[in-house]
Amino acid sequence: MTKIALLTSGGDAPGMNAAIRAIVHSCQHHQYECIGFFHGYNGLLNDEWQALTHADVGNILQFGGTILKSARCPAMCLPKGPKQAANTLRKHQIDALIVIGGDGSFRGLEALKAHWEGQIIGLPGTIDNDLAGSDNTIGFATAVTTATHAIDKIRDTANAFERVFIVEVMGRHSGHIAFNVGLATGAEAILSFENCDPADTAPQLARLISQIQVQQQHNHDSFVIVLAENLWPGGPQALKAQLAEQAGIDSAVCVLGHIQRGGSPAPEDRLLATELGLEAVNAVSRNQDRIMIGKQGSTLQAVPLSGAINDGKPVNGRWVAAHEDVLTEYLIKHSE
Ligand code: F6P
């Protein structure tokens, strides 16, 4: 009987549970055995696992987090980790390993493949949406929704005080969350990797200051800056200090942080996770290997794991341009 192992790894993402559920149901449909390893790759290193059947995945798809727990596993970057993980998979006579995670998790999967003969399949599970080969990753829609609702609330209090807010969003080193959330909330400024060079923030700061001054002097309105994490040297507090020092602008900082990773998955994420989970098991039955299952448009597709990690997925350039050229033009025009 074919035996599939499953784990969730790296930053958890809302919808991981829905993917686990779909994989387990599909395994039962195909009469495959399915076992889940706990705590990401650590479960393979420590041989920590349980058999998964229908009974284990009832009533989980509406919850964030992951019933298999998750973790980062630095040992997978060392020579010993992947070998040990391979031994555990051999011991359990696993035919295929499905990993739900982001690019670090997929790199671990590639490292493991050098020591193991079974099939490896990745499912894109990260709020960052930074994997090529799938329009969206599992968890991205929920993170954008959560951050959007949070900034709508911040906007109320910002409006009341005609205040400047710097709101930091997650995304690691990509601006998918920043741009989606910035556009969805009508942010006056979006500072992200696509439109700001962290090595030379002076032009952005000067532009920002004049835009804020226009807003405060002419429009008497709030000003929300959506800032991508890991972008501005010194982070949002440094930006706040620079606004104060260089232009006497008072601002409030809100770091949304891990709130974006939690909560009940949005329907889009539940559906994406279900489709990708079912397709991952189909891929096992087709003997596919070293692939990630993604969805582009309405088409499910298998892409090489290496491409998913290395090809890069830029933020929609039309959105970047539209925000700067059209949606905030009134601020730029006033400030010239
Ligand atoms: O990759 C998901 C993510 O939430 C990133 O957006 C963020 O940079 C990182 O993980 C945070 O990691 P940790 O939870 O380990 O602090």
From TrEMBL:
Pfam families: PFK (PF00365). Its EC number is 2.7.1.11. It is an enzyme of class 2 (transferase). It is found in: Cytoplasm. It comes from the Bacteria. This is 6-phosphofructokinase. Its cofactor is Mg(2+). Belongs to the phosphofructokinase type A (PFKA) family. The lineage of its organism: Bacteria, Pseudomonadati, Pseudomonadota, Gammaproteobacteria, Alteromonadales. Keywords: ATP-binding, Cytoplasm, Glycolysis, Kinase, Magnesium, Metal-binding, Nucleotide-binding, Transferase. Residues 3-284 form the Phosphofructokinase domain. Pathway: Carbohydrate degradation; glycolysis; D-glyceraldehyde 3-phosphate and glycerone phosphate from D-glucose: step 3/4. The keyword ATP-binding applies. It catalyses: beta-D-fructose 6-phosphate + ATP = beta-D-fructose 1,6-bisphosphate + ADP + H(+). GO terms for molecular function: 6-phosphofructokinase activity; AMP binding; ATP binding; fructose-6-phosphate binding; identical protein binding; metal ion binding; monosaccharide binding. The keyword Nucleotide-binding applies.
